[in-house]
Design brief:
388 residues, two-stranded parallel sheet, 32% strand, alpha+beta, Porin, 13-stranded antiparallel sheet, globular
């Protein structure tokens, strides 16, 4: 006996159905980037997009252990394992917490987010610095470092979204560079490109994310990993599936496959376990209490909006959100009138990233740009000066 087909809007709260219907109609007639669209309250998240880079370090033990690999191949495999470990947190845990994927709050230009993971078992402290460096288009820059372990991640990301009829397609722009200081001296660099997303379940009112197409990790040592993502019906026949091929030059060294939300194996589905997402609990970022944060820090900036969303008081959330957005529009008008621009506080923008260009040349993907700009962390001394 076949299951009854799910009706459109089946998961939408009754008092939100009118707004949801209007939202779906506007999606159907919208062309180009959807990031500026106003979403109905029930799919709004109380979390700003500036908090998302924290997902990179929610497994701080694995991040720290990268530099402990004794060979180039072992370190490359550790980077791949750490990267796969970040995916569940980045793309599915909001469904577990809030019932479905939610649209994050659009950060304001200059918004900041700071966090850390304390030193546990001698692994060293991991620090996170995030700044919203552009509003149109939205771009978030981040820097994550464990000084003791000798690992640091610097990157930026943006999103271009479009509606494809039943789902939203998200092309992530930007890249990350991972630096690993070797105990014997020297340094390795790993370029990490970002996967594309497909947000399904929109017409039912219960969005969820599926990764699609490919991404890559390319090391300065000559090793690289090509990762392909598929949904249900491919590879293992399960949702959230991936297959990664680790190579050195044109030679395949090893393969990995499975679910990035569950278990993956080495050398085939019957091989030894590569990573088990359920066996390694993530560690939430530690953030200062809101009352100790600066006015530009995310949780203080959006506190009233977030409280409204969490409490179901969408009217208050909407009013407070409009106040913030209108204030930002006025700032941009004032800057335009004065012929000035907003100064970046934690990062410096560069038009071309030579390390990206060198490593990206190894990726055999015509959709991957040959050159990209970047945002370089100014350093902790500059951070302290700006905070003073």
């Amino acid at each position: 006996m076949s299951a009854t087909p799910k009706e459109e809007g089946a998961d939408v709260p009754q008092d939100q159905k009118a707004g949801w219907t209007s939202f779906i109609k506007s999606l159907a007639h919208m062309t180009g980037d959807l990031s500026s669209m106003t979403a109905p309250p029930f799919i709004l998240s109380p979390v700003s997009l500036t908090e998302f880079p924290a997902y990179w370090a929610e497994h701080p033990e694995q991040f720290a252990e990268i530099s402990q690999g004794t060979t180039e191949e072992e370190r490359m495999e550790r980077v791949l394992r750490w990267f796969i470990a970040t995916l569940k947190g980045q793309y599915t845990t909001r469904n577990e917490k809030m019932g479905s994927e939610k649209k994050p709050l659009n950060p304001v230009l200059g918004e900041l987010f700071y966090g850390k993971w304390p030193d546990t078992n001698g692994r060293g402290e991991t620090d996170l610095i995030v700044e919203q460096v552009s509003h149109h288009p939205p771009i978030t820059a981040y820097y994550i470092e464990n000084k003791k372990a000798g690992v640091a991640l610097q990157g930026h990301s943006g999103q271009k979204t479009s509606f494809t009829g039943t789902s939203i397609y998200v092309k992530q722009s930007g890249h990350a560079l991972l630096k690993v200081a070797l105990k014997a001296g020297g340094e390795e660099t790993y370029l990490i490109t970002l996967p594309k997303l497909r947000i399904e379940g929109i017409i039912w009112g219960s969005p969820y994310i599926e990764l699609t197409e490919t991404s890559a990790i390319v090391s300065s040592t000559g090793y690289s990993a090509h990762i392909e993502y598929k949904g249900k019906g491919y590879f293992s026949g399960k949702a959230h599936s991936f297959k990664a091929v680790l190579s050195r030059g044109s030679k395949t060294v090893q393969t990995y496959e499975g679910q990035w939300t569950g278990v993956s194996t080495i050398g085939g589905h019957k091989g030894p376990v590569f990573y088990d997402a359920d066996a390694v609990p993530k560690q939430e970022v530690t953030v200062k209490p809101v009352e100790e944060q600066g006015e530009w820090e995310s949780r203080r900036l959006w506190q009233k909006v977030a409280d409204g969303i969490r409490g179901g008081d969408y009217e208050t959330a909407g009013k407070e959100k409009s106040l913030i957005e209108n204030e930002q529009r006025q700032r941009r008008k004032d800057e335009a009138a004065a012929n000035t621009t907003w100064p970046l506080r934690r990062f410096t923008h560069i038009e071309e990233d030579p390390e990206y260009e060198q490593l990206a040349a190894v990726i055999h993907d015509k959709t991957q740009p040959t050159t990209e700009d970047a945002y370089v962390f100014k350093g902790y001394e500059e951070e302290e000066k700006a905070a003073a």
